Amino acid sequence: MSEAGHSSGDSAQMRPARTLGGLPALALVAGSMMGIGIFISPPEVAAHVTGEGSFMLVWLIGGIVALFGALSLAELGAMMPRDGGDYAYLRHSWGPGIAFAAGWLQLLAIFPGSLAAVAVATSKFQLPALFGPGFAEPLVLAGSLGSVVIPASHLWAAVIIVGLTLINHVGVKVSGVVQVLVTSVPLAVLLVATLFVVWQHEPGIVTPVLVESGSDQPTALTLARAYLPVYFAYSGWNAAIYVGGEIKNPARNLPRALIGGTAAVTALYLILCVGFLEVFSLDGLAHVGEAGTAAAQAIFGPLGVTMITGLIVLAMIGSLNGSVLTGSRIAFAMGKQGDCARAAGQLHPRFATPAVALWLQCGIALGLLFFDLAAFGDGLDTLIAYTSSAMLITGTLTVLSVMILRRREPKLHRPYKTWLYPVPPVLYAASSLVVLIVLAQQGDLSVWIAVGWFAAALVFHRLIRRGRVPDRDLSC
């Protein structure tokens, strides 16, 4: 690995240093998962299901599926510890066409969409509760053709995205320290606070809003629709694979980070969901805009809500920082292969970070942020739906890569082998396909757009592949 002091002319040949240890890698997974989803998704799930049993079932299924994914990708990550994650694995297993299509889906939708959704939700719900109503004041731009009103949530979201991109521009080690700090403290305190609620309070602290509900017999459609926001909430379980080329001793640390981080956050999510039901009941939860701050207000009052909201903001920063760090490695790997701008595959001559890839991702996220505002208004659920549908496609293909390589290249050295193979990859893929099929049959637009974009990218890749330069080595 060349050090950061090389000239700019050598920057394209530099490889990232392995600066992330086991704890930062685990914090990256846990922090990437512990985003706004666990606070904004429970009300949406509660609105789709018919009873507390099905509510908890959807969250349990989401955790099991995420754990199956982590068990599967731990094998790929230990075997091929490369930057780029899914893109690198798909290129090795499925070929350059599938990798190209999945890479562009991640570059244009998944990571920027997640960044935009989490940043907007944090700015909309948490910042005004923490710093006062002044943070909710919109910006009004007056002109000769009229005035344009930009919500404060979108302005502060843009500031957060740009600020975290700048931190990651400076260095992976700095980002890793930030990740550990903003992940460990909120997770520990939120766990203690939730356990206090579960054990010390009677159900229904908040008077529920009474709505008519049927029997606790979920249908395939209601479970599928409820599962999309749950899937979004659990996203991030694969975060460490995107920086595989920057993790020390990846054969040991990558599987531990993926499996340990996913298991810990799954347990915390289930405890939090029980706590939300204790506070609101199912009917009341369905009418709460954001469960975390509302629960803190109901239980601890004004002083408590400030403390809990501050911890939630830290958790959101951890999630966003993880997404900025990992998502940029997709563009970095694609740039090295020529599947996007070659400059994206170069490292900064001083900081040895994929600076162009980072700012490319930042620009796309900001574009999605304001496109969503112009097209859908305050459509957080729209961002989540489109992002989740795209994740289902790429995640399924990547997990199936484990089975492809087991069959095609059985003699490859595998420092870690998927526990209970082939159950985890089979059940992960099956559950994702069932959700996609059910939603597609019901005409869900987000699924059809994700599938359509993936198919269009495949066709485009086939049209341009003639005359391409030979593939470059992605290993780190």
UniProtKB/TrEMBL annotation:
Keyword Transit peptide among record annotations: no
Principal subcellular localisation of the protein: membrane
TM regions (residue ranges): 20-41, 53-76, 97-121, 141-166, 178-199, 226-245, 257-277, 297-320, 351-371, 383-406, 418-439, 445-464
Keyword Transmembrane in annotation: yes
GO molecular function, one term: L-amino acid transmembrane transporter activity
The organism's place on the tree of life at top rank: Bacteria
InterPro entries to which the protein is assigned, alphabetical: AA/rel_permease1, AminoAcid_Transporter
Pfam families per record: AA_permease_2
Membrane topology recorded in Swiss-Prot or TrEMBL: Multi-pass membrane protein
Compartment annotation: Membrane
GO cellular component term, pick one: membrane
Keywords: Membrane, Transmembrane, Transmembrane helix
Protein name: Amino acid permease
Species of provenance: Enhygromyxa salina
